[in-house]
């Protein structure tokens, strides 16, 4: 059973519902990615608007001047194997470039993604 992360966090007042999230949405692989700057996260939910409260999440935090830590990704079981974590990771990398930020990476998935996509030139975004 997939966890209903977004709806559970919204229920305890930790996040706003997806429709009210900040940032402009982008889409791919049948999912819409939104950047919720207030809650320091990226979310991905099905683009179809099928009404599912589930969403995938990438969390980050600011750790210093011009620096963030990409903390974790979570993808509900129902969405796994569809490239959703990659969409979230790419959105976070785009954010780093747009805001001229550098990142530490705590998330094992993002580390693996960056290793696999080394040829895309994202190495300059990382803090050693």
SS strand fraction: 25-35%
Radius of gyration: 14 Å
CATH architecture of the domain at 31-117: 3-Layer(aba) Sandwich
Give the biggest beta sheet.
6 strands, mixed
CATH superfamily of the domain at 31-117: Gcn5-related N-acetyltransferase (GNAT)
Order of helices and strands: HEEEEEHEH
Organism: Tetraodon nigroviridis (Spotted green pufferfish)
Family: Belongs to the NATD1 family.
Protein name: Protein NATD1
InterPro entries: Acyl_CoA_acyltransferase, Gcn5-rel_NAT, GNAT_YJDJ
List keywords for this structure.
single chain, alpha+beta, Aminopeptidase, 6-stranded mixed sheet, 6 strands, 28% strand, globular, Protein NATD1, Acyl_CoA_acyltransferase
Question: Summary?
Answer:
This protein is α+β, with helices and mostly antiparallel strands. The protein is built from 3 helices and 6 strands.
Describe what this molecule looks like in 3D.
The protein has 128 residues and is of the alpha+beta class. It has a domain at 31-117: Gcn5-related N-acetyltransferase (GNAT) (Aminopeptidase, 3-Layer(aba) Sandwich). The chain contains three helices and six strands. It has helices at 5-11, 84-99, 108-116; strands at 26-28, 31-36, 41-46, 56-64, 67-74, 102-105. It has a six-stranded mixed sheet with strand order 1-2-3-4-5-6, with helices on one face. The radius of gyration is 14 Å and the shape is globular.
